């Protein structure tokens, strides 16, 4: 009843091409934005901001990056955590070594460094495909983490490779409270998400999708596979790099190369699979799901079984539940949470008279 | 020069171990097109179950030798059940999904199997004794002056026997022929009446057996511990070197990776600060892929629009 687009006419190209063509969507989305920008920082406590909302946002950004590469351009990558590490360490070094470096510029430069590294490791994608490429991206994962650990210059000669990030100051305002860090993260993520949404709607995004669906056919109709694949690698790594820098600066404060291990790469891959491959919304839903699930399990499992279980068993139970849920999700809804949302919207349009 | 050969032989023999893990991957990929990331977890599960069964049986008062073989049989049974359950619960509902979905499902399976294995048997590091000492073989020492571990030779012989018996199984049995037919073309195999799902269950059971052998040898070498699951990662460059669909490729790839990573660690490592074993095989495989995208023995893939 409420969700009906009858009577909404598109009279101009501009109206036809907007991101949310239905008025209810626009209103709903503005409400969501207002909720997260205005209400949440006012009411949420420190734990929620620092331990849940900020990581969800940061992982959404990383998942968005991987989704551009894997979901839109069809290149499977297992090295996203390494590109996050490049972003984090590059931003750290720019802040450290360039006097008076503005934080936002360091963030962008960190992302650009990650993009350059991403393009270098994306070169093999021109020759190899599918799982061969996935294994090739593992080379990036192991090599980058090794290099960051091995060469102390990257971590400013700290003993164990751990870096402590500098204070975040923009135009004289210090972002040191959880709420301000949350708002900063949210702004960056919202901006980049908007950019991504527009990118995948443009000719760049269509070229990626053509390459994903069949790269030989895409080449035949005049899309340059080299250009499309490498731009996907660059944009994806840029997003991962910015996410990594935020991970270091607004979430953890101290990071080490080992923190960006293969497990993290897999986590990001899980996010896009569970959220929905090839969907911007899916990156956010998947990130929220994967970040919240362990917290939820942590709280629910001891409550369910009381003191019956030893802590080592409950950590194993967590592994089992996590693995089982992933398999369950893949079987029940292989297109992810974003697809569920879409189905829900379709249902809502027809409700209450579905026939 | 003698040192070079020692490193080379040590590398080749450790490469045999990688090849054993890679073999399990290849079997499943060939028959069902699933990139089974859980192979490493299966190796871990097999080794842990074997040690666990052995402990339980010996606590019941069985002498060492029968306990060893009984534990072997019980673990084999567990691996076969695991394989069949995987096929039934995970893969059957996912038929016709894109390969990446199946790959993700096997990553989920990895977590599941690791959790179950440690949940049942505990997470302690255990020793595994196959009764073969890790000491140099005397006659090689005397005749050529090289240090070659008896254990490594045994492992290589086991791997050789395994590959030989698999080759015979594939070549001369009815099931083996059916397996090869399925690997060649699912649709055609189905149309001449080969029960696809039973074949897949068999393949997973065979991969479980290979995982058991690999688990025993790895476990005896490095102790049964969680780190065993990472051996699967070392098998990946082996796979891309050898090609995902080739059994001899897995063996040759394993040997190349084992030898080159040891040589690189010894000769290139000191120049850049060591520890390059972790990524050298991948970079080698990457460089190799640029020249031959389908691996050493992989099938040439022709793209058609």
UniProtKB/TrEMBL annotation, chain A:
GO molecular function, one term: branched-chain amino acid transmembrane transporter activity
Protein topology in the membrane: Multi-pass membrane protein
Pfam families: BPD_transp_2
Family annotation (InterPro entries): ABC_transp_permease, LivM-like
UniProt entry keywords in alphabetical sequence: Cell membrane, Membrane, Transmembrane, Transmembrane helix
Coiled coil stretches, renumbered: none
Chief localization: membrane
Any one annotated GO CC term: plasma membrane
Signal peptide per UniProt: none
Location relative to the cell: Cell membrane
UniProt-listed CDD domains: TM_PBP1_LivM_like
Chain ranges passing through the membrane: 27-44, 50-69, 76-95, 101-123, 130-148, 182-200, 230-252, 264-297, 317-341
Protein name (record): Amino acid/amide ABC transporter membrane protein 2 (HAAT family)
Source taxonomy: Bacteria, Pseudomonadati, Pseudomonadota, Betaproteobacteria, Rhodocyclales
UniProtKB/TrEMBL annotation, chain B:
GO biological process, one term: amino acid transport
Name of a matching Pfam family: BPD_transp_2
Annotated compartments: Cell membrane
Transmembrane segments: 7-28, 34-53, 65-85, 151-170, 199-218, 238-259, 266-291
Gene Ontology CC, one term: plasma membrane
Signal peptide (from-to): none
Keyword rRNA processing: no
Membrane-protein topology: Multi-pass membrane protein
Alphabetical UniProt keywords: Amino-acid transport, Cell membrane, Membrane, Transmembrane, Transmembrane helix, Transport
GO molecular function: transmembrane transporter activity
Family: Belongs to the binding-protein-dependent transport system permease family. LivHM subfamily.
PANTHER family to which the protein is assigned, alphabetical: ABC TRANSPORTER PERMEASE PROTEIN, BRANCHED-CHAIN AMINO ACID TRANSPORT SYSTEM PERMEASE PROTEIN LIVH
Protein name, UniProt field: Amino acid/amide ABC transporter membrane protein 1 (HAAT family)
Organism listed in the record: Azoarcus indigens
